[in-house]
Amino acid sequence: MILGGNKAAVVENIKTNLISGNYNNKAEVGDPNITSEEKTELALRDARNRGTVGYWMKTRLAMTFLYFFDLFMNRSTKVEGMENLSQVQGGAIVTSNHFNQLDNTVVRETMRRGKQGRLYTVVQESNLAMSGLFGFIMNYVDNVPITKSKKYTSEFFEPFIAEKLAQGDKILIYPEQEMWFNYRKPRPPKRGAYYYAALNHVPVISCFVEIKTLPEQETEEFYRTQWVMHVLPPIYPDPEKDVRTNSLEMMDLDYRQKVAAYEQAYGKKLTYAYEEGDVAGWIAKEA
To answer: What's this model's pTM, rounded to 2 decimal places?
Structure first.
C-alpha cells in the first residue's frame, strides 16, 4: 500500500541523502508542519491521557481494527527465521529497517505469529498530529511518542519503556530513524534502541525486511511489492559490561547482521551509491 501521493520528490531526497552521507535524514515530504513546542505538547497530552477510560476505549477500538488490518496487509508476507524469535523470552527491543508508513504491520504480524505478546512502537511525536482515520490509529494503537523534551523523556518515556519491558512486552524502535520509502538497503543505525536494551538488560530482536517487486503495477510510479521478514539471531547485552559499551557493541552487531541479510537476500554487496532497484517497485521516468 502506498500512502502520501507522488514519490518522485522522495526518491530525489533519498539520492541527495546518499550523496551527502546523511543516512538518517528525512526523505518524506508533506509531514505535519508544527513547532517543537507543539510536538512536545502532543507527547505530553498522550502521556496525560493514558490510563483514562476514554483512552482505553479508543485503544481497544483501534487495536481491534489494527489486528485485522495487519492480517490483510501481510496476507502474502513470508517470515523466515522464526527459530531465532522462539529463543527470546520476556521483554525485548525490536529493530527493523524503516521503509514504509505501514512496515510496523510486518513486525507486529511476525510477533503475533511467534506468540511474542504485545508490541509497542516508538514513533515521532509529530505523527500524533495526523488527522482522519490514520490520525486516530496513530494516536490510539500501541504507539509511544518520543520527543526531545528531557522532562517528557525522564518522567514518562523511559519509565514507560522500563515498565513494559519488565512486563515481557516488546518495543519496536527504528534505529534508522527516518523512513525512506521502499528503500531496500539497511542504513547505519543510531544508538537509542541499543541504549534502552542495555539499560534494561534485555535482548534485541534483530529484523530485516526484504522487499520483492511483483509484476503487477500498483500506481503510475510503482509496481506492487511483497515483504519477506528475516528474523535474525537475537543480540544480548553482556552483564559484565557497562551500558555504553553494550549499546555500541549491540548496535554494531545488529548492523552487521542486517547487512549480511541484505547481501544474502539480494545477492550483492552493500554500497550506498544509488543504484536502480534501490527503491523497490519504483518506475523510473526517463529524463
So the answer is: 0.93
